[in-house]
Amino acid sequence: MNIGFDTSQMLHGAVLTVELAAGGVGVSLVLGALGGLARSRGPRWLRWLIVGYVELVRGLPQILQLFILYFGLTQFGINLSPFTAGFIWMCFYGTGYAIEIFRAGISGVHPGQLEASTALGLSRFQSFRRVVLPQAVARMVPPLTTFVILELKNTTLLYIIGVPEIMYHANLLASNSQPLNIYLIAVGFYLVMNMTLGRLGAYVEHKMSWAKS
Amino acid sequence: MFSDVMVNSTPSDIAVDIRSVTKKFGERTIFGDVSLQVRQGEVVALIGPSGAGKSTLIRCVNCLTPFESGSIMVLGHELHGTNEAKRGPSREMLKSIRTETGMVFQSFNLFPHMSVVDNVALAPVLVLGTSREEAREQARELLCSIGLSHRVDAYPRHLSGGEQQRVAICRALAMKPSLMLFDEPTSALDPELVGEVLGAIRALVDRGMTMMLVTHEMMFARDVADTVAVMADGALVEIGPARQVLDDPQTDRCKSFLSRVLQQKAPSANTSAPSMGAQIAADAPTQEHEQARDTDRKRKHAEEVER
Ligand SMILES: Nc1ncnc2c1ncn2[C@@H]1O[C@H](COP(=O)(O)OP(=O)(O)OP(=O)(O)O)[C@@H](O)[C@H]1O
Ligand SMILES: [Mg+2]
What we know:
The complex is a heterodimer of chains A (213) and B (307).
Chain A: H1 8-41, H2 44-59, H3 62-70, H4 82-107, H5 111-119, H6 124-154, H7 166-175, H8 179-207
Chain B: E1 14-25, E2 28-39, E3 43-47, H1 54-61, E4 69-74, E5 77-80, H2 91-100, E6 101-104, H3 116-128, H4 132-145, H5 161-173, E7 179-183, H6 191-206, E8 210-214, H7 218-224, E9 227-232, E10 235-241, H8 242-247, H9 252-265, H10 276-282, H11 287-306
Helix pairs in contact in B: 3-4, 3-5, 5-6
């Protein structure tokens, strides 16, 4: 396809965007699950620590968080590459959101469920694993879908510190070509990605249709 | 019904022995110094006004909630108040108590993510180590015996309230308990569904199951219970043979409770002698009674949902 400029650069950017988002989501989900569990079942000091962490993630502007990581830490001699700083921020930010999603999912399960399984003689672990968790996960599917889409869109912010993701290349090309055409390619990319993710989320939700009340 | 339910018996004649138990939530005393015995094969109905602590008392029996002082002997296991025992009951003991005790809740609490048969088969597999096939086979038999053979593969949300509660009864019975605890099993049901659940409970009574039954169904209590215990104002105000307590209450507190319940049931009944006997003479439930119970049920349900 010849539309007057080299699209292979954009393609590289797209691949990097997907990698960053996938890595960030993966790490965030693992840490978020652990954090969410500790937030609802852990010792008090740990709960407070996690509450504080979530407040930081939720309360500070994303650019500020990113700049502190990338520029701020140089003051302590910590020089992160744009990619490393960007990836760490994706995980830092995503974990905060994932913790909240897991916590809400777990606490949203009716307490009668835990009572019923306890009364049947299931251990705490069995009750959690077999009764509470499956219901919590089902409740989490819609917010998790939104979360994955959010993480994918967040990668664009990394362009500011020079991570060569899709927006970075789009901006480079836009400066010496017709900008709208370039941006439309990015629009196409994000739409295809996010609509796919949305369909996937809806499919999983449908698979768990017992959860609809 | 329940032809295959085995009622186990333990050596002692006493199934549950509650000895001066005091229960608090925070600073608030819910009940103090409560004592109650349940013999093997006995059916004890626990009645009393809302908030009296009936649910809390039967939840102490299977350790769903701890109590402060006194002790409870359940099927040979000793539970002590948190003020008296240095350590809580061991895991093994809790497991034994809960395995040997079945509980049925007002709001059914079926597991929504499992089919009916899996709801019933879950605990035997996880707790008793029964094989999956065997547990499911037994679950099917139980469900058949309660008239739910056509619903085994359905999910709970597709069942009526009465069906859900009958599944919940099967789920408890699948552990082959020697003691059943019922906490207002029919209070969340539409009036026309109450009968099928009471029928299932009656079938269990006929099989000789030991039971503690919290209920607002006075007629049913009078019919199936050996003993009625009336709980009010943080104490058991009257305990005795079912008919005696319901027809001829001795204490003022019990009299006033019963008169209020019966009045609500049949406003036209002779209010000067609000006994169960008079109620039975009046017999057929009036329109008002149905309505009163219906509003009560809705209020209860709303509270349940709020929690
Ligand atoms: N987890 C709890 N924390 C604090 N207070 C509680 C808790 N559970 C129950 N209570 C209180 O204990 C009292 C007794 O409650 P309980 O549920 O045992 O009453 P009940 O006799 O079963 O009433 P009902 O007929 O409405 O079911 C109520 O005043 C209730 O508010
Ligand atoms: Mg109650």
